[in-house]
TrEMBL record:
Keyword vocabulary terms for this entry: DNA damage, DNA repair
Name by which UniProt lists this protein: DNA-3-methyladenine glycosylase 2 family protein
Domain of life of the organism encoding this protein: Bacteria
Region: Disordered, residue numbers: 1-25
Organism name: Streptomyces camelliae
Residue ranges that the Swiss-Prot or TrEMBL entry lists as coiled coil: none
Keyword ATP-binding in annotation: no
Gene3D superfamilies for the chain: Hypothetical protein, domain 2 (1.10.340.30)
Amino acid sequence: MAGRFPQRPTRTTVRGGHVGVPTGAAAGIPRQAAAPARVRRWVPDGPLDLGLVLGPLRRGPADPTFRATPDGSVWRACRTPAGPGTLRVRAYGGEVRGEAWGPGAEWLLDQLPELLGTADDPEAFVPRHRVVALARHRRPGLRLTRTGLVLESLIPSVLEQKVTTDEAYRAWRLLVRRFGEPAPGPAGAFERPMWVMPAARTWALIPSWEWHRAGVDDKRASTILRAVRVAARLEQAVGMPAVEARARLEVVPGVGPWTSAEVVQRSHGAADEVTVGDLHLPGIVGWALAGDRHADDTEMLRLLEPYAGQRHRAARLILLSGHVPARRAPKMPRVDIGLL
């Protein structure tokens, strides 16, 4: 069952899913002049840190679908219900400016406030531990993103099952660049151009040897193939409560509690859906809240009970606090899938 194995021994969310976004003064654009973009301006109702809010959407520093640039912008290339689109987001002067290109541009701009956490309610969170309270005080711009997209979080989450993050990120990067399509608009002018992930039908047609070349074993590849065959049904889950959405996702063989939680945290902005089955998270939570580096899932959930309704936010704040036990066990070794 997915999510019950040591899947993320070096996962970047040990830092809580934060991407460094410079505070740029000049609104730069990649090398060539930008194509005409649709624009939306939006004023958030509180502090907003783009790196904290959008950081969980990045799958490694070389993710071809995500980019943070020196001018303070965050770029996303994604496949929307209206087609591929590129979104550039920049915050300055208390205002957010979104620019979008491609068939999915209008959809991306319509979703911009939810992407940046307008549906989230940080004020509903009441810290019960000093370490959590300090992390919240130091990160006032943390909001939980809601992408409104399921498959773009499900596929990379499946790739992260039972392997190191480096292996998973490499697989995502290779598959998106080989079978995706260039991002609309000026993102294609970056030194490393951005890409939109493949459509569901394209994922379904990837030959077995290409999965192997990307380092993806048959079990994970088969899970993705089963998921894309019912992609429309899975995308409908964005209109369901998070608990029901997880149940629908877990109908797909190979998608278990770990994977479904990782998805709805992003697609729904689910504040209470804490990840179970992670190799490190129980020990980190146990160490931060009780000094117990050997806590298991049961103990982690017990410690998070005071945050019912907000357990995922509490876990993220703990990760952001940096209050983690020193690593004693060796890193998980890479696996040659040819030996499986």
